[in-house]
Amino acid sequence: MSTINDLWNKFKTHVIYILIIVILVVILGSSVNRCSNVSKEYENNIAALNDTIKYYQDKNGNLVATKLAFESDVNTLKLLNEKLYNQIDSLKLNKNNVAQIIYVDGEINNPTQDTAFIIKNDTVSKGFYRTFDFNNEYRTLEGNVDYHNDSLGIAITKDIIRFDYTVAMDKNNRIYIKSTNPYVAYNEISGFTVSQPKTKRWSLDAFGNINYSPIDNDKFYDIGLSLGYSLSKVTIGPKMYFEHNLATKNKTFYIGGALNLNILKW
User: What is the pLDDT of residues 27-60, one digit of tens each?
Assistant: First the structure.
């Protein structure tokens, strides 16, 4: 133990300098990482502003519309796309709970269909009544035509349009929308996703503690570094620290390992 203490007394100034340098490097690295994330968000949002709706066919022959979404916080979205921000506002949601929103403005362009009624001359004066239906797997349109006393009436008794949407967003914030109804057209697509912090596994922590033991009246402090690797609820890694007992004047340098269990996060 004396050998370790001798080494500590000899190199403690250097160790303290190293700790300070490491802390500054960690702070600088964190700042650079944040600037890099902001830069990526800025580039993505510029691309989203300039992007237009593009189409391609999926393996089933359905058209897929695709467009980039914005990435930011909700307040910044108001500057990027006020219309999309107002959609969030109209939903009466807690804006802090919004993770994603996609807005689609579309229309159904059904094909035109013609029909002809054969009317005998002797029935024109008496009037006539005919029904019609234009039905397929995407539309039901039914009604009747009534002509009586020089008055022509058209009544729609059933008008149903069937369509579906499949919406997906990849990790690059690109939106993909498709419908099995071939008559669906997209006039506008806009989306938003909240910026998510990147998951980091490795961490380097500097720590310092001041302790007092009322039982034996010991007072001591310690400072050190720990390198951690996060595994869900557990963080493991090497740890080194210097401890100075103010009562006994003992100074000790420790190197070991640490295992921390993350019980609560807030």
Answer: 666 666 666 666 777 788 788 888 889 988 998 8
Are residues 142 and 13 part of one domain? no
Q: Which domain holds residue 150?
A: 121-161
Q: Give the chain's radius of gyration (CA, Å).
A: 35
Q: Rounded distance, CA 231 to CA 73, Å?
A: 28
H or E segment to which residue 19 belongs: helix 2-50
If asked whether residues 102 and 169 sit together in one domain, one would say yes
Please, where are the H alpha helices in 74-221? 74-80, 82-90, 121-124
Cα dist. 35→22, 30, 204 in Å? 20, 9, 19
Please tell me the pTM assigned to this model. 0.57
Do residue 52 and residue 20 come from a single domain? no
3-state secondary structure of 163: coil
1 — pLDDT class (breaks 50, 70, 90): very low
Instruction: Specify the number of domains making up the chain.
Output: 3
Query: Mean of the per-residue pLDDT values for the chain?
Result: 77
- Rounded CA-CA distance 81/70 in Å is 9
Does 80 lie in the same domain as 22?
no
Tell me the pairing of strands 218-231 and 166-169: unpaired
First to last CA, the chain: 41
Edge-to-edge strand ranges of the sheet holding 100-108: 70-72, 184-194, 100-108
One domain for residues 222 and 102: no
Closest by CA to 235, choosing from 204, 266, 196, is 204
